[in-house]
């Protein structure tokens, strides 16, 4: 067996050889078209191998036809998923299928919530929380950059998921226990739930009119009430929705509270929320890559964010992530 690099593999359009993992298990066959989903599969393996053969592997016409048909179907499925759920992150350590599950699950949960099927929506959100926590544990040791975690798509559907993923990684870094991590993940998924009740909300947060901004700033109050009265969850969870826009120096909203008056969970989610907004072009801060977003967090510093989660977040992954946001898409 010969070691083959992932870069060599993904430079091909059609795989010229069978591909094996470190256990000798075949993961892809010669003749397959390297769709985005297969590229993700390749990237999720640290070491890959091909067989050393004295003669080129022959593929008969029936095999070629089967490979071509299967690959074309996979390609069509991938394009349909992109059309339905938005772009996918080709550099992500979260595999393609999981990206689809998280996106579709959250969109369906919000549809249920808007249709007043609250208990079903709640059950779906809890499933998403559990999947994020489980998958985070599986990939944590292999993640080097923030760009390898971020989901892509329409901001209102993707932002809660990204905030939850970042928050779970940060909570682990801060050594919270299992129950606390579950609460933090759920808080992150629901921190913007108040927005579902806003009417006429603009999708571009950087270009709001005064009236739109006034309405937008009510979402923490609405979210707090929804979590308590409709979802019937704890004050710990609801308080995050209420306080995630508060700032340590008292210049935040809706109440302008400061320092230890802001809950620990809200302090964690505030950092992750702002980072995802910056890396989604949802703030007035112009950043072109993840390293610039981390610099912007540090510039805001302890005036805006609690020092403990802020510095843990900045240093929990590599600071040298210069990946541009456009580089992630396929």
Automatic annotation (TrEMBL):
<dbReference type="Pfam" id="PF13487">
    <property type="entry name" value="HD_5"/>
</dbReference>
<feature type="region of interest" description="Disordered">
    <location>
        <begin position="53"/>
        <end position="72"/>
    </location>
</feature>
<dbReference type="InterPro" id="IPR037522">
    <property type="entry name" value="HD_GYP_dom"/>
</dbReference>
<dbReference type="InterPro" id="IPR003607">
    <property type="entry name" value="HD/PDEase_dom"/>
</dbReference>
<protein>
    <submittedName>
        <fullName>HD domain-containing protein</fullName>
    </submittedName>
</protein>
<feature type="compositionally biased region" description="Polar residues">
    <location>
        <begin position="59"/>
        <end position="72"/>
    </location>
</feature>
<feature type="domain" description="HD-GYP">
    <location>
        <begin position="134"/>
        <end position="329"/>
    </location>
</feature>
